[in-house]
Design brief:
This protein is an alpha+beta fold and 130 residues long. It has one domain: Roll (Nuclear Transport Factor 2, Chain: A). The chain has 4 helices and 6 strands.
Length: 130
Amino acid sequence: MRKIIIITTIVLLAVVVPAKGNLPAGIATAFKSGNADKVATYFEATVEMAIDGKRTMYSKAQATQVLSDFFKANKPSNLVEKHNGGSGNSQFSVFTFSSNSSKFRATIFYKGKDNDLRISKVNIEKDTGF
């Protein structure tokens, strides 16, 4: 009986307590849909973006336009989270996604939790399989 209680407790904790560092559902859904405006609702006032090696600091509006242009050329599908982590309030998630012509690897750095998430950095590069 004691084993059943312990196992039940562990299973319930695994289901009820969310894993820290997972890509938040709102960001994942917005990114997977290829909707830059939805992703931008999570942007800080300024966002560092690197797309295929070109790294620039953008205002929220500029970053939204850059991401929108990227999504027009590379509509995301099959988003798969590969790795996540962080410390305290600062988190990151690494995921891959396919487009009509290529496979990409993205890393998003964000702070906050629940309804107050803010993306500070987005890196998108072609996935080489490593």
